[in-house]
Amino acid sequence: MTKTREGTDKPYVIREFAPKDAGHVIEGQLDLYRKEYGLDTEIWRRYLISAVQDFADHYDSQRDFMVVVEREGKVQGGACITPTDARTAQFRFFFLNEALRGTGLGRELFARVLVGCRERDYRHVFLWTFSTLEAARHLYRKVGFTITETKEHDDWGPMLTEERWDLDLSEVDSN
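and the corresponding structure tokens:
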């Protein structure tokens, strides 16, 4: 379904991931993290490319779930879950092109992924993020995620504080 949203001047589609989208997801993530957070080391690029490509190569619609925002034929954002065990999923690859931020699309992607968790009978979901991603952290907190672990490192370039956020899905209203 094609929609427009206040703050956007061109229609967009939110749809399920197809393996052909992997390159666009990689490109969008690398561009975002390079421009906004200074992550541009070879180790960071290898980590991200490998993780997204592994997701695409082993995509199982019964266990994995990803939605992307497409506009003018190009993926402009996305979010996914991957299983870590039978009842736990990891939220990953959340990004939204700068031109679409502030339109509610980030919240919509996030909500759709949580529905995907429930449809796959996950009881728990977690994610890793950086302390500098304020808008995303606000969204995680609003949904009910809590920080359960932090670690500082400079493995990917600048010194970062990584945070693990966890959510028990049985404690969250599914509406």
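(Above: one complete record from the training split.) The chain has one domain: 2-124.
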